[in-house]
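Sat 14:20. Reprocessing the chain from the morning session after the first attempt stalled halfway. Input below, unchanged.
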Amino acid sequence: MKPTILTSPMRKIVFRRKSISTLLVFNGLILTLSSLLALISCNKENEKLAFNDIPVVESYLIKNNPVSITISRKTPYDNNVAFSNDSLDHLHIKILYNNQTRIIPSVGNGVYKDPTLLPQEGITYQLEFEFNNQLVTSSTDLPTKPVNYTQSVTVLKVPSMDFSGGFPSGGPPTMPDPVKLGWTNNDEGYYMVVIENTEKNPDPIYNFGDKDPPGRFFRNEPTQSNQYEIPSMNFQYYGKHRLILYHLNPEYAELYKDNGNSSQNLTNPATNVKNGLGIFTGLNADTLMLNVVKQ
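Finished this time. Tokens:
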């Protein structure tokens, strides 16, 4: 089945801002990332001297999907630092592969896209552009498509539940067994599962009263296992769901390991971008379908 690419989960590992600048990833995935932002030193006295205006790159190359690259700026703790004169919409973004050089055009807001450049397996792609008088580079390739991707059930029967007034007197209903996913992983590669409800107006499983409705997708963290179980309680809606299995490169998984930063211990997150921050990586996916129905 043709893999489905989510614009925010797997993009999202994307970059999300917090009070002291954090750069994180994936969507609706893809990861959303969803999502580290560069952490900068808290020493105000040395901020102007220490701050280096470097770009933050976010790009996920997916087989047969047009190349898209987002460039943003590292956010300093002190707003009085000096930035370079580089415009995020007028950079000379290049992708080099198979002795070819492709200039990626800007579409505004720091985003560069080429609808004719469709990444393939077995090819190394190199990113190059200049920013603040430095050559920014990174390279990646596409991992192989997941092999022998299977599921334990194609239909999951779940009882409807109303917790708006607390648990019913008899306690919560009995839930079905978890959905078991499996795949071949002979080289301890990294994988991530993203579950997305595909209905336009999905019927919720739970009634939570006036609370905001839950999101329509969820995922696990990257794993080097060859299996994953989805607890039936994790499903929030009835209807058809995509079970998307992503094969990841190690640099993507590294983003999830950088979770020990605090305001007392700030470091830049993992990156595979030289003279920059962020991620330039390849993904490959396969998709299964699951129908969640009322019991």
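Residues 147-269+282-294 form a domain with the Immunoglobulin-like fold (CATH 2.60.40.10).
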